[in-house]
TrEMBL record:
Family: To bacterial alkanal monooxygenase alpha and beta chains.
GO cellular component, one term: cytosol
Pfam families linked to this entry: Bac_luciferase (PF00296)
Annotated protein name in UniProt: LLM class flavin-dependent oxidoreductase
Organism: Plantimonas leprariae
Ranges of residues in domain Luciferase-like: 15-301
NCBIfam families tied to this protein: oxido_grp_1
InterPro entries: Bact_Lucif_Oxidored, CmoO-like, Luciferase-like_dom, Luciferase-like_sf
SUPFAM superfamilies hit by this protein: Bacterial luciferase-like
Recorded superkingdom: Bacteria
GO molecular function, one term: oxidoreductase activity, acting on paired donors, with incorporation or reduction of molecular oxygen
């Protein structure tokens, strides 16, 4: 096997547990990943969701960096539309100064929450989402030498100056995002866990490689257990509901109740809702690695980012440990 393994964590709150327990579990899992040889550990950003504790990933990243020794730690990703690129650059420059060579800045385009949360996050700013491509270019500039002299923010420099800049990764699910990342000189992570279309993954990989000359990362849902039956049973009821909204917009949500709540907050009625079973690689360590190896041969994947789609911490930790068992020397 010739691929690296990394992890994406949303800090899910298991039934009967608290947010504090979910965050403690995230830290424990990151410490285990550090020991086991995983390459990266990313924290997602979600807003207004009572089932997830990852509303401020930068804070969790700082804590995990202080509790680990080797693994790269970062965001998967900061939802840039809500923030000034200058401030994001400052935060990650500080993190990179505290933990040189170990900080990843993953950026996402989605809002990461329901409409009321998005409205609250842009309080005081009028209009719709900002120009994402402009925001990304500004962020890249503030992480580097600053914006050009003819820029509206010319003269603004972000500090401190770390010995090693954070690694920059754009998360996306299509060709446009892949091409944007390549043009900007960023790594790209194709969100295969959210868009399970193999043809779209192939197009994204080809588009990124054509410009960047290297392959992107691939995020996938995966769960490993002692038996294949146990692994598949734990994920058999997971669904994603794609709500198609007026104007051609579509949003993926975890339940019909979430679709109804999104529609209520947005003040729209979905034109249609698709119920999809996401692509989840589930099985024994051997079965999951065989499936990953098949994807690797097809796409040339050099690094998988694994999202384990269950809230139960014991199952998540077991999956992390079992998956690492066969590739620890490679990943390290």
């Amino acid at each position: 096997m010739s691929y690296r393994l990394s992890l994406l964590d949303k800090s899910p709150i298991a039934e009967g547990a608290s947010a504090a327990e979910a965050l403690a579990s995230t830290v424990e899992a990151a410490e285990a990943a550090d020991r086991l040889g995983y390459h990266r550990y990313w924290i997602a950003e979600h807003h207004g969701n009572p089932n997830l504790a990852s509303s401020a990933p930068e804070v969790v990243v700082a804590h995990i960096l202080a509790r680990t020794r080797r693994i790269r730690v970062g965001t998967g990703g900061v939802m840039l539309q809500h923030y000034a690129p200058y401030k994001v650059a400052e935060v990650f420059r500080v993190l990179a100064a505290l933990s040189p060579g170990r900080v990843d800045l993953g950026i996402g385009k989605a809002p990461g929450g329901l409409p009321f949360s998005t409205l609250a996050l842009k309080d005081g700013r009028d209009g719709g989402p900002p120009d994402f491509e402009r925001q990304l270019a500004d962020l890249d500039a503030f992480l580097g030498v600053g914006v050009p002299s003819d820029h509206r923010l010319a003269g603004a420099l972000a500090f401190p100056e770390p010995r090693q800049a954070p690694e920059r990764i754009l998360l996306g699910a299509g060709v446009a995002s892949a091409e944007l990342a390549a043009r900007q000189g960023w790594l790209f992570c194709h969100a295969g866990h959210l868009n399970g279309d193999p043809a779209e993954a192939e197009r994204s990989f080809a588009a990124y490689e054509a410009i960047a000359g290297r392959n992107p990362l691939l995020a996938v849902f995966a769960l490993v257990a002692e038996t294949g039956h146990s692994a598949r049973r734990q994920v058999e009821n997971i669904r994603i509901f794609k709500a198609h909204l007026p104007g051609g917009r579509a949003v993926n949500l975890p339940s019909l109740e979430a679709v109804d709540e999104f529609a209520r907050q947005a003040g729209v009625r979905p034109e249609r809702v698709e119920e999809n079973r996401p692509e989840i690689v589930a099985g024994t360590p051997g079965e999951v690695h065989a499936a990953l190896a098949a994807i690797q041969r097809r796409l040339g994947v050099e690094e998988f980012v694994i999202d384990t789609p269950v809230a139960d911490f014991a199952a998540r930790l077991a999956s992390i440990e079992l998956l690492a068992g066969q590739v620890r020397p490679l990943a390290a």
